[in-house]
Automatic annotation (TrEMBL):
Location of the FAD-binding PCMH-type domain: 30-199
Coiled coil: none
InterPro entries: BBE, FAD-bd_PCMH, FAD-bd_PCMH-like_sf, FAD-bd_PCMH_sub1, FAD-bd_PCMH_sub2, FAD-linked_Oxidoreductase, Oxid_FAD_bind_N, Oxy_OxRdtase_FAD_BS
Protein name: FAD linked oxidase-like protein
Record keywords: FAD, Flavoprotein, Oxidoreductase
SUPFAM superfamilies per the UniProt record, alphabetical: FAD-binding/transporter-associated domain-like (SSF56176)
Entry's family note: Belongs to the oxygen-dependent FAD-linked oxidoreductase family.
Entry keyword Oxidoreductase: yes
Species in which this protein is naturally found: Amycolatopsis vancoresmycina DSM 44592
Length: 453
């Protein structure tokens, strides 16, 4: 341990250290695990030292960027945790529309650096999410239909491989392909180079429908969403209404359908474009605002705080099952749980398979059932609700899933997600860069030598 501490510029923690308990925590409180060692990296050399130490000690390895993954794969009992959360630098080249972001940055770090230049990297909808996990698994968000996924904007990366060597993807195009959607299977990304897009103020309108109107409003949403252009992104959520001041007293703490439309085009067109989502069946209440992109990105933060318990199930859909979604909401078990859905496609379809490992680009809809509660004694009922709800809306025979939302899955699910051809190519890349499967604390792609016979 003394040698590891001498080799690292950042702190090295063991269970005896006062800050150990705090540092080992991740966003989802269901995963309170006890790593043997936590290496709080501040530079690429620290990552290399941690990997060398783990190999010499015969210990497994996990990697944390933002620690926001619902499956909690960033931490494991008895492992060496390579913690990138102190590596938060973002450097923007506005003239080139490029940003260089270290492996531990959060989405809010990227937004804070790029928004003053009128630029953004398309990313997820909760600003305390880590960039690395999101980008390596895909990256849906408000700009995805207009510009594509987060992984589509990874131009290059610095990667520490399992043997401690450091490579740049400019010399390894097969590795870059795998990193764009193949998850954390291939190495530790210590720096991303990101393509940026123009992102000015946006028009945002949200409306709430009482539960009795949910099925009709869901059908209205589907008609609107499937016809919307690339400058618009409409999403929906079935949930228990909060106590916010703008919500009428009669709707608070009752099941509702929330529809949201964001207009990304010419500002003058925003009010009319957003209003179309809510016609002819009008919501009980709505709220319209003009937001900066950074403000838009932070809207979801309050609904997913650190330290709560989460369990998520997700599936792709060809059509929106209005009655099934409403039935799942009627049985909701926690005031914080939600059923989210959105129409995808648009620019998500644009990147050819040869450029990215991300699967499922042609999926029309994604539906995500997010159970969210506080009391560990309520684990079983909330997990059961999430499983039953997704089973009630999933389409028989439609495979695939969004890899960033996978957890608690049966053997073979990762193969189902990627499909035979894409998985075989990923396994080849895995065998080239991580033949011993050191990076297996993830939705694991095994090298060819470790595939089941």
């Amino acid at each position: 341990m003394a040698g590891l501490r001498a080799d690292c510029a950042g702190p090295v923690l063991t269970p005896e250290d006062p800050s150990y308990d705090e540092v080992r925590r991740v966003w989802n409180a269901m995963h309170l695990r006890e790593p043997a060692v936590i290496v709080r990296c501040t530079r690429t050399a620290d990552v290399r030292a941690a990997l060398r130490f783990a190999a010499a000690a015969g210990l497994p390895v996990t990697v944390r960027g933002g620690g926001h993954n619902v499956a909690g794969t960033a931490v494991a009992d008895g492992a060496v945790l390579i913690d990138l959360s102190l590596m938060r630098q973002v450097v923007v080249e506005p003239g080139e529309r490029v940003a260089h972001a270290q492996g531990g940055v959060l989405l809010r770090d990227v937004d804070a650096a790029t928004t003053p230049h009128g630029l953004a990297c398309p990313a997820g909808v909760v600003s305390h999410t880590g960039l690395a996990g999101l980008a390596l698994g895909g990256g849906y968000g408000w700009l995805a239909r207009k510009w594509g996924l987060t992984c589509d904007h990874v131009l290059a990366a610095e990667v520490v491989l399992a043997d401690g060597s450091v490579v740049e993807t400019a010399q390894h195009p097969d590795l870059l392909w795998a990193l764009r959607g193949g998850g954390g299977n291939f190495g530790v990304v210590t720096r991303f180079t990101l393509r940026l897009r123009e992102a000015g103020p946006v028009h945002h309108r949200a409306g709430l429908y009482p539960f009795d109107d949910a099925v009709a409003a869901l059908d209205q949403y589907a008609r609107f969403a499937e016809a919307q252009g690339p400058d618009q992104h409409a999403v929906g959520c079935l949930k228990i209404a909060s106590d916010e001041d703008w919500i009428p007293v009669g709707l608070r703490r009752t099941p509702v359908l929330a529809l949201t439309s964001v207009w990304l085009g010419e500002p003058a067109d925003g009010p009319a474009a957003n209003a179309a989502l809510f016609e002819p069946l009008r919501p009980a209440v709505s709220r319209e605002r003009v937001l900066s992109y950074a403000q838009l990105q932070a809207l979801g933060d309050h609904s997913e705080p650190h330290g709560h318990r989460y369990y998520t199930k997700s599936c792709y859909l060809g059509d929106l099952p209005s009655a099934g979604l409403a039935a799942a909401c009627a049985d909701i078990r926690s005031p914080w749980s939600a059923i989210d859905f959105e129409y995808l496609r648009g620019a998500i379809l644009d990147l050819p398979d040869a450029e990215s490992a991300f699967p499922g680009r042609d999926a029309p809809y994604i539906c995500t059932v997010s159970a969210h509660w506080l009391d560990p004694a309520q684990d079983a009922e909330n997990i059961a609700w999430a499983r039953a709800s997704i089973a009630g809306v999933a389409e028989p025979g439609r495979g695939g899933a969004y890899v960033n939302y996978l957890q608690d899955e049966p053997d073979g699910k990762v193969l189902d997600v990627y499909g035979d051809v894409r998985y075989a190519k990923l396994a080849e890349v895995k065998a080239r860069y991580d033949p011993a499967n050191v990076f297996r604390a993830n939705q694991n792609i095994r090298p060819h030598s470790q595939q089941p016979v």
